[in-house]
Specification:
561 residues, 3 domains, Alkaline Phosphatase, subunit A, hydrolase, metal ion binding, alpha/beta, Alkaline_phosphatase_core_sf, GPI-anchor, three-stranded mixed sheet, 18 helices
Length: 561
């Protein structure tokens, strides 16, 4: 406790800087071969007893870290550990302890490196699509309204599948609720940019018959049936008036879609609640509310590093998840929930690693909360990303070097200048010039590279906020019924199919698997599992989960004999 107070004090007085090297509590143990041998033996034993839960998933939760490629995850993992005062490298993100993992190929039908709309269509609708299109097949090109209206080219999503099976559905995001990932649940459009009527109108007759994404959310199925909608986007929904020149996508039709949404629920004889602050969100009683909408930003939800943490400010993503789960768990038939850490991507696009990685750590907290709230024996949880970014972890920094800091060992660097551990292939952090003899770069000596607005160095210049995505595979981690179906390199569209198969919905509604193994077999260990999740480290939590799942599969095998 004393060391924790010291750490907090050091942060407050600014003693944790780019040059800070965090301690490694395991350093002495790591010098012994037995430490690594014992660690490996433990993991082998866990792998040999790897559970396969084959009962039907009553509930499915998909956590999507936008732009959370493997490099981004690694950096976020280290930051998480360093925020605890450790060296960071030995840390685990919550989902990295899940027993099943696969790699997803992220390309679009027409692009080697994907965007978030085509990828959302893949992992939510089960079929790959073209760049910038949502909820439609590869026959629909970007901005082709006519083709997108053809029923043969329109896809159904995991939200459609769940609703038709009698399950309740919801979405939580830190981006706009009309942004690419959440829109993949409900929208069918040839352009992810068509979030409001203004963008559609710009195409004149070529866009006749096409509806903007915000209207689809409120007026069409499955959007209007979502029980929980939380994120940003008051502008796109017409709930906040602003001068059009200050924003690219402002409603000009005069429609307040939030009021329309509330009136629609009232006409159905249902109760609804709308929140714009933490105070208003906490005032909602999910137990007696049918529909919940929370719009916590004019555009996106503020970054975690900027968020007003007062009751009159913006809720943490885990606060939104908590309310969403309390509401959806009322369903006797189960639920599907999409949770997106949307601003990881935005921080990456601006080359501001601090902003992005703090968003990732916040999502880690939300996943931990979900694990504590749900019934693990009947809930499939998947954590994945839509695409990666062009950030790299480079140099040979010492163990425990601040992940947001600089590498001072420059013997192999021709100009002898320090450089950051995190750098980008391209981005707005390009800072090179010609001095008449050679190309020179910015000297980072004395620069606070841990500042939230610091732009990491980049090799190729791009316009403001337009660092590109990366094209490598992303990981998918899974826990719960049928999680073992993630087992190798897959197409990204496979994600939707695993979720559908696990829950016996959509294309997989006709299944003959047991709903669950006899419930009484869990009674003796459930309380211990819950207690283990509520206390201790992430590593300890997942030791408990592993024991629980191993016991489950062993008993399941007994009943199948």
């Amino acid at each position: 406790m004393r060391s924790l107070r010291l750490l907090v004090w050091m942060v407050m007085v600014g003693w944790i800087s780019a040059e800070t090297v965090f301690p490694s509590p395991q350093r002495d143990e790591e010098n012994e071969a037995d430490y690594w041998y014992d660690l490996a033996k433990q993991e082998i034993e866990e792998a040999l007893q790897k559970p396969k839960l084959t009962n039907i998933a009553k509930n499915v939760i998909l956590f999507l870290g936008d732009g959370m490629g493997i490099t981004v995850s690694t950096a976020g993992r280290i930051l998480k550990g360093q925020k605890k005062g450790n060296s960071g490298e030995e840390e685990f993100l919550v989902w990295e302890r899940f027993p099943n993992v696969g790699l997803m190929k992220t390309y679009n039908v027409d692009k080697q490196v994907s965007d978030s709309a085509g990828t959302a269509t893949a992992f939510l609708c089960g079929a790959k699509a073209n760049y910038y299109t949502l909820g439609v097949t590869g026959k629909v090109k970007y901005n082709d309204c006519k083709a997108s209206l053809d029923d043969e080219n329109r896809l159904t999503s995991i939200a459609d599948w769940a609703q038709k099976a009698g399950k309740e559905t919801g979405v939580v995001t830190t981006a706009q609720v009309t942004h690419a990932t959440p829109a993949g649940l409900y929208a069918k459009t040839p352009s992810r940019k068509w979030q409001c009527d203004t963008k559609v109108m710009q195409f004149g007759e070529d866009a006749m018959g096409c509806k903007d994404i915000a209207r689809q959310l409120v007026e069409d199925e499955p959007g209007r049936n979502l029980k929980v909608i939380m994120g940003g986007g008051r502008q796109e929904m017409g709930a906040q008036k602003i001068e059009p020149e200050k924003r690219k996508c402002v409603r000009t039709d005069g429609v307040d879609l939030v009021k329309q949404w509330m009136n629609d629920k009232a006409a159905q004889g249902k109760t609804s609640a709308y929140a714009t602050t933490t105070r208003e969100l906490k005032a909602i009683n999910p137990e007696d509310t049918d529909y919940i909408m929370g719009l916590f930003g004019e555009i996106h939800v503020p970054y975690e590093v900027d968020r007003d943490k007062s009751l009159d400010g913006t809720p943490h993503i885990k606060d939104m998840v908590e309310v969403a789960l309390k509401r959806l768990q009322k369903s006797d038939n189960g639920f599907f929930l999409l949770v997106e850490g949307g601003r990881i991507d935005h921080g990456m696009h601006y080359g501001m690693a601090k902003r992005a990685l703090e968003e990732l750590v916040a999502m880690d907290e939300a996943v931990q909360l979900a694990l504590e709230m749900v019934n693990l024996e009947e809930t499939l949880i998947v954590v994945t990303a839509d695409h990666s970014h062009v950030m790299t972890i480079n140099g040979y920094p010492d163990r425990g070097n601040n992940i947001l800091g600089i590498v001072t060992e420059t013997e192999d660097i021709s100009d002898g200048l320090p450089f950051t551990t995190l750098m980008f292939t391209n981005g707005q952090g390009y800072n090179y010039s010609w001095n008449g003899k050679e190309v020179v770069r910015r000297n980072l000596t004395g620069v606070d590279t841990t500042d939230k607005d610091f732009e990491s160095p980049a090799g190729v210049p791009t316009f403001d906020g337009s660092e590109t995505h990366g094209g490598e595979d992303v990981a998918a981690f899974a826990l719960g019924p049928m999680a073992h179906l993630f087992h190798r390199v897959h197409e990204q569209s496979y994600v939707a199919h695993v979720m559908g198969y696990a829950a016996c919905i959509g294309p997989y509604q006709d299944c003959d698997r047991p709903v669950k193994v006899p419930h009484n077999i869990y009674d003796t260990i459930k309380d211990e599992v819950r207690e283990g999740l509520k206390s201790g480290s992430s590593a300890n939590n997942f030791s408990v989960i592993s024991i629980f799942l191993i016991a489950t599969v062993q008993i399941t095998s007994f009943f199948q004999c």
